[in-house]
């Protein structure tokens, strides 16, 4: 994981450079958030899936970069005053606090656009149909049945009485699990995995996506609640069950699934 994280940092650093003075500001703003030190879980999932199916790491690098660009742009927009209105992200000022709402919105838009262009421009060594499918998977993960749709339902459910379990699960599936699913499936598709393999990857990713959110809620409770033991204990059992289900979906791959199994454990054991 650490090797893949370091590789991801290098790829991200190389992926965005200003080539003319007129783009210095927007690129600076994009690079500020892209290189602000996240856990890089989505690129790791993409690399681990591609390697599980015998694919080449090189062929998956542009998709891994694109996944982190999409994730980063969603965080920039999520932090805006019109959404969560956060001043800090990963302990640093948020993009709009430093660059203003106008530049932050456009930096997010440019990063989303660049994510697709990057995959189309940089992917080498795999048939074009796989690249097109990857672009489709990425697009799906962002749209109405993806991050944007999940965020809208989340925003509109806030403060509402009686938000049901179904709604909550829908929000987490699209706001969080959709991009994790895209990460695993992009890696699998680039390696030439079969439809059955891809379906197993989807099951794995949806389960870890929900577990991810349960783990986030536990971290929130741990940092804020007085009734820590009770709530966290029950949620930990739910998260563990989701991770066990995720791992079961990859049972046919034996040892080759080890990195994805490890990532599933990491998702609920992480402290940030
Ligand atoms: C995608 C067009 C488009 C717009 C964005 C704002 C928005 C729509 C969606 C919100 C998406 C969002 C913030 C989802 C939460 C996802 C999540 C679990 C974030 C935390 O991920 P980590 O823990 O973060 O991987 P690090 O900091 O490690 O990168």
From TrEMBL:
InterPro entries: Isoprenoid_synthase_dom_sf, Polyprenyl_synt, Polyprenyl_synt_CS, Prenyl_diphosphate_synthase
PROSITE patterns the record matches: POLYPRENYL_SYNTHASE_1, POLYPRENYL_SYNTHASE_2
One GO CC term on file: cytoplasm
Domain of life: Eukaryota
GO molecular function, one term: metal ion binding
Names of required cofactors: Mg(2+)
Keyword Transferase: yes
Gene Ontology biological process: isoprenoid biosynthetic process
Keywords: Isoprene biosynthesis, Magnesium, Metal-binding, Transferase
NCBIfam families linked to this entry: FPPsyn
PANTHER family for this protein: FARNESYL DIPHOSPHATE SYNTHASE (PTHR43281)
Homology family: Belongs to the FPP/GGPP synthase family.
Name this protein carries in UniProt: Geranylgeranyl pyrophosphate synthase
Organism: Chrysochromulina tobinii
């Amino acid at each position: 994981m650490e090797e893949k994280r370091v590789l991801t940092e290098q790829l991200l650093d190389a992926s965005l450079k200003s080539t003319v003075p007129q783009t210095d500001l927007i690129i600076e703003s994009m690079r500020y958030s892209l290189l602000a030190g996240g856990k890089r879980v989505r690129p790791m999932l993409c690399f681990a899936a591609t390697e599980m199916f015998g694919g080449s790491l090189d062929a998956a690098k542009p998709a891994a970069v694109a996944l982190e660009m999409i994730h980063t742009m969603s965080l920039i927009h999520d932090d805006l005053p019109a959404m969560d209105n956060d001043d800090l992200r990963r302990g640093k000022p948020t993009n709009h606090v430093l660059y203003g709402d106008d530049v932050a919105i456009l930096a997010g838009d440019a990063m989303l656009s660049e994510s697709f262009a990057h995959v189309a421009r940089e992917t080498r060594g795999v048939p074009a149909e796989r690249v097109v499918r990857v672009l489709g998977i990425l697009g799906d993960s962002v749209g109405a049945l993806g991050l944007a749709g999940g965020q809208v339902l989340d925003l509109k459910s806030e403060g509402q009485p009686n938000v049901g379990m179904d709604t909550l699960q829908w929000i987490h599936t699209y706001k969080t699990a959709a991009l994790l699913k895209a990460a695993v499936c992009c890696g699998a598709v680039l390696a030439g995995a079969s439809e059955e393999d891809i379906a197993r990857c989807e099951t794995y990713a949806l389960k870890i996506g929900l577990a991810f959110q349960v783990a986030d809620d536990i971290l929130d409770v741990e940092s804020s609640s007085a009734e820590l033991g009770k709530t966290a204990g029950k949620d930990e059992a739910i998260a563990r069950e989701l991770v066990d289900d995720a791992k079961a979906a990859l049972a046919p791959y034996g040892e080759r699934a080890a990195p994805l199994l490890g990532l599933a454990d990491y998702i609920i054991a992480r402290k940030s």
